[in-house]
């Protein structure tokens, strides 16, 4: 039997004759089953390319079922090859499913990955199994199943520590830190990233992985309000992502760098940072323009301008949970400072007047003022019957009361002592 030429399949794809291309690719993959004796090195290379290209063709046509089945077929077709080649083919096909636009792409990828892990265990392919288990833990993280991800991670940590596989250990500890961060267990998240950095120090760490370590470290320090240290980590991550030429992540980290400067109140540093030679080329990106407008609003101490920024750049400022969280803190801080500035000259002021001056609905103003009174940011009371805010001077503690208590306590001690001595004499 003559094996079809892969060039004919590629030509059919170019001409958008997908049915013919699919038929040719299938015949190429089935060649070893029909005539096993003709399976030589050239055929093996052709089949490798054929599997990848057929997967891309299924993806192009949106054939999810066929693409998933192709993974199983690839295991049968290439199972007898060198382990490294089989692993590469399987990982490439899983990549196609994961990065597809199917509605349940992540769920489908989890299922396929689990099947491949079971196959790797049966075939005793330890390295493939380990890499797929890391992939599965990562997929659970992506689908927000953090506890399921951690369950896989705990098993892998024991295995990699026993094998002293530092590189895999760094990957798993980094993923562990991300999971704990999402679960808001910041202590464990910080412990995991510290362990990951310790492991990374003893090996050669590729720049993308080092950038991820710096990024997670920066996020954790920002969560602790240590924005100076966070900025240092973000800057390291920024430089590593530039080396790796990853524009999407580079811009993301740049946003975090600008956020740190804004939260520190160093607005002049934002301008100088954007004039930096390595950073200026990103200054016209919409995400960076969003952060610039936030810095201007913060500089002007204008709550209205910050509100306008959040409306104009809603996607850029609210889709990222890290940016959204810290901007929420910034908004509250700016809101509080604006209110304190407005009520400072008054002892009694109408709430409707405050609402008009600050440009926000009355119910929002009332809620914020009541929270500030409860937090003892200032002393006052809301007279909702008249619609007034009554402000009191900060109460001065009367030290006479404390002094009198001390005198009574001392006298009580003296009387008790005298009573004891009188009792012993009698």
From TrEMBL:
Cellular component, GO, one term: proteasome regulatory particle, lid subcomplex
SUPFAM superfamilies according to UniProt: TPR-like, Winged helix' DNA-binding domain
Keywords: Proteasome
Domain of life, source organism: Eukaryota
UniProt cross-references to Gene3D superfamilies, sorted A to Z: 1.25.40.570
Presence of the UniProt keyword Plastid in the record: no
Domain PCI: 226-396
Family in the record: Belongs to the proteasome subunit S9 family.
Name under which the protein is recorded: PCI domain-containing protein
Source organism (scientific name): Ogataea philodendri
